[in-house]
Amino acid sequence: MENAVIGILIPFVGTSLGAACVYAMKQELDRQVQRGLTGFASGVMIAASIWSLLIPAMEESAPLGKFAFVPAVAGFWLGIFLLLTLDRLVPHLHMYSEEAEGPHSHLQRTTMLVLAVALHNIPEGMAVGVVYAGLLAGQTGISTAGALALSLGIALQNLPEGAIISMPLKAAGVGRHKAFLGGVLSGIVEPIGAALTIALTAFVVPVLPYLLSLAAGAMCYVVVEELIPEMSAGEHSHMGVLSFALGFTLMMALDVALS
Q1: pLDDT score, position 185
Q2: How far is 239 from 33, CA to CA, in rounded Å?
């Protein structure tokens, strides 16, 4: 249980450290830097979806033989529809977008920016929670090192996310402390979601392959719907795709080396 507590807090620490950049940097992040950080986060999330979630989901379904892919496919689509539903129910505003998504609201622009990041942190919290729930239940397809690799990988991609939300808040006229708090709050859903998932371990384990792949589908939705458009917006640049490749290979290496 101690390992699980540490594991679910590591990604939140990553977000908080990234948000703390608001105290060290005077100006908003350069556009190319933001592209690079967003691309890196995208690569980490896609690699984590494959090696830390989908592959273990199919390994857990091995008794199904050649149909071991069925829970992974079903769970993946559930994750897509879950995020699609949240996208429609929660008012939020993506970076570099002038028009808010979700139902009409009178929320401030800065609040909706934080909500947008919080939305895509939900599947990351679910992913960590599901993996540690499986680990605590003694599932053979999940190792302590593999769970730690996922936590570290998500923490790595949360570092730039924390900065990407706190720095624009500061540039929009929000004070340093409030901008930092906004960055931190955008990541608080991760440990909360992970803790709730672990608390429901008895219910999680029987459908573990579905939940692992659900988290993967939700993370892939976030990457395709939000992060890739953000890293590609504006004038043409190879920064996004190169940083995507870096994040992908780093997370892949981390997962394989520690598993």
Answers
A1: 85
A2: 8
Task: Name 41's Cβ contacts closer than 8 Å, sequence gap at least 6.
Answer: 157, 158, 160, 161, 227, 247
- Tell me what pLDDT residue 28 has: 66
Interval 6-42: pLDDT, tens:
999 999 999 999 889 888 876 666 778 878 888 898 9
Decide if pLDDT at 140 tops 70. no
User: How far apart (Å, rounded) are the C-alpha atoms in residues 2 and 187?
Assistant: 21
| Gyration radius of the chain's alpha carbons | 18
Alpha helices in 51-175 (DSSP H): 55-60, 69-89, 109-136, 144-171
Say how far apart CA 144 and CA 104 lie, in whole Å.
44
Give the C-alpha separation, 150 to 110, whole Å: 30
- Note the pLDDT tens digit of each residue in 37-56: 888 989 998 998 999 899 98
pTM listed for this prediction:
0.85
Residue 99's CB is within 10 A of a number of other CB atoms, namely 6
Residues with Cβ within 8 Å of residue 166, at least 6 apart in sequence: 18, 19, 20, 21, 22, 179, 180, 182, 183
Provide the residue type at 10 as one letter. Answer: I
Residue 128, classed as helix, strand or coil, is: helix
Tokens coding 72: 């992974």
DSSP 92: B
